[in-house]
Amino acid sequence: MINFPIHSTNTAPEGSTEILGAVQQKMGFLPNLMGVFAEAPAAIEAYTTIMDIFERSSFSDAEKQTILLSASYVNECDYCMAAHSAHAGMKKVPSKIIEALRSGTKLPDPKLDALATLTRSIVETRGWPTEASRDEFLAVGYDAQQYLEVIVGVTVKTLSNYVNHAAETPLDKVFEPARWAA
Domains in the chain, ordered, with CATH? Predict the structure, then answer.
């Protein structure tokens, strides 16, 4: 097994310290995932840059969390499922939506359900989603721009999910109430 240290701003390589400081200031604490990412300045920069871009997408907070949780569910990322479940709650995503995303079941909101279904299909098929999932996505009012934005969300979650798998990132105490296991 590879040893992945969990860095702080005091132990991180030079190219990661500024990003870690910004994350810590923004979140009020430094998530273990970010401490792991800090081992490779290119990795932490890639993750934070793509996440910042995804945050500027046309999706609402509930839609963003639907994408992030759906990708993490398929990738069976315990850390990201817990972290984004907690984040979704802070963003006022209804608990019934969060529960359905955590269990991989049909969402009570048809538009969010179509979004979750497409996202899961993209991840499961490595980018070749079913025609039915694409058709439903469009039928509920999404468009080509948003399809590409889903792929951006899948990209950022694939990056963090795979890092968490490799590092076996321990869950932060703040996310403990939302613990999840595949």
Answer: 14-55 (1.20.5), 61-178 (1.20.1290.10)
